[in-house]
Amino acid sequence: MSKVEPVNLIDTFSEFKELKNIDRPTLISVLEESFRGTLAKMFGSDENFDVIINPDKGDFEIWHNREVVADDEVEDPVSQISLTDAKKIDTDYEVGEEVTDAVDFLGFGRRAILTLRQTLASKILELQKDYLYNKYKDRIGQIVTGEVYQMWKKEILLLDDEGNELILPKTEQIPADFYRKGDTVRMVVVKVDNRNGNPKIIVSRTSPLFLQRLFELEVPEIHDGLITIRKIARIPGERAKVAVETYDERIDPVGACVGVKGARIHGIVRELRNENIDVINFTANVSLFIARALSPAKISSIRLDEENKKADVYLKPEEISMAIGKSGMNIRLASMLTEYTIDVYRDIEGEEEEDIYLDEFTDEIEQWVIDVLKSIGCDTAKSVLAISREELIQRTDLEEETIDEVLNIIKAEFEE
């Protein structure tokens, strides 16, 4: 049995030497399959060939097996060899014996090498795509870390520690996020697309899941299951409300999440670009849950419409602005957290001077203007007058002329 000097795979196929994510048995199988595919194209069949891959040495050997036949009986040169040619290999060969000789693959020329390289590249790319998809489809909802590689207007391309590409769309970035190439970013995997066999990993920093995972990292009691996060509402980069509960009476869930002097929550706040985070105790009592969700405002009473998931909340005049919050943020988050539409009303019970509900002004003030005023907690005439002209303009975003007209109408009513 003759033998040729093996050809080093690393030298011949250098682009594959740094392959990641593909285990050795799989790579050997792919190499062998690629060689066999090339041999089949050249000879019409690979059945009479043995392909041996030596991963430790980084080389390969190909052996051609043929039956020795009489010189005038060769019908298939792939499976048969004439006695004369066989004796050139070894003079002891006789008809009927099997000849196994080494194949000089590189001797087949540039086309054979090119075909092999293309086949290898195609199969390995397919394997890498499968690996990437299988790795990340099981990591949806988990935090990953990536390095900023390239930035575009609508998205950022990041690379994980294995060089896999992660996409952070603009819509999934916190408004205050600002990155440079090379920056390290933490985010949560939210989606893995695999259209046409091309996996696309979508990550997010605005998802409530990202906030939940950060709490799990910072608060051991949550990680250990002693405290459960029941609900999260977020306006990314601005404010969030997190409802937590525990079945262990010895644990204060809110205190544990905040930490001594806010030590635990400060790390999360910094990660989220100074997003303010309110942690409240969850309760199945809807009225109480809504009251807690509207914190720091203190409510006077609540009227629930459970069928339509609506809540009318009554507060003292000085509490209304706190309940609504800057730009309506507090009441919006409370609605998101409780899944109830919340309307706030001025609690006029017990006031000496009679007040008038805005709905009674529909003959003089357009209904849509009244609805805007009610959306900021002004459901009565006096609740409107209790707020300065400038604040009304800012909070309602109504035209100055419209606000002036409303104020004149209401003031005229009381002057009468």
Automatic annotation (TrEMBL):
Monomer. Binds directly to the core enzyme of the DNA-dependent RNA polymerase and to nascent RNA. Participates in both transcription termination and antitermination. This is Transcription termination/antitermination protein NusA. CDD domains: KH-II_NusA_rpt1 (cd02134), KH-II_NusA_rpt2 (cd22529), S1_NusA (cd04455). It comes from Paludibacter jiangxiensis. PROSITE patterns: S1. It is found in: Cytoplasm. The keyword Ribonucleoprotein does not apply.
